[in-house]
Amino acid sequence: MAAKKQSFEKALARLEEIAQAMESDETGLEESVKLYKEGIEISVFCAEKLNKAQQEVTELKKTADGIFKTVAFDTENY
């Protein structure tokens, strides 16, 4: 499944499926390696989507003189 052609939500759901499959006793070594590779690809896709979304999110802050200014969202204070 090509991660680049799906939504973030579908990719995340697939990543959860992969994690559950790998945790089960029914998955053999070869299948686990295949799932691991797919999981890595999907996790990179999701990380890129999250980084892009974070860059796009902005917030308004009121300056000392009462003017609102748009600034980048600060994730370290949340």
Describe this protein's structure.
The protein is α+β, with helices and mostly antiparallel strands. It has a single domain (3-77), classed as Helix Hairpins (Orthogonal Bundle). It has two helices and two strands, in the order H-H-E-E.
Describe what is shown at a glance.
This protein has 78 residues and is of the alpha+beta class. Helices cover 56% and strands 13% of the residues.
Question: Which descriptors apply to this entry?
Answer:
single chain; 13% strand; 78 residues; alpha+beta; Helix Hairpins
How far is it from the N-terminal to the C-terminal residue, by CA? Answer: 34 Å
Reported for the largest beta sheet, the result is: 2 strands, antiparallel
Overall residue-averaged pLDDT value: 86
Q: What is the gyration radius calculated from CA atoms?
A: 19 Å
Strand order of the largest sheet: 1-2
The gross shape turns out to be: rod-shaped
Level of helix content? 55-70%
Under the CATH scheme, the architecture is Orthogonal Bundle
Question: Would you tell me which CATH topology applies?
Answer: Helix Hairpins
Tally of separate helices: 2
* Beta-strand segment tally: 2
How much of the sequence lies in strands comes to 5-15%
- Structural class call reads alpha+beta
Poorly predicted runs: none
Order of helices and strands: HHEE
Summed up, the domain count is 1
Just give the CATH class: Mainly Alpha
Oligomer: single chain
Could you give the topology of this structure?
Elements: H1 8-23, H2 29-56, E1 58-62, E2 68-72
Antiparallel strand pairs: 1-2
Helix pairs in contact: 1-2
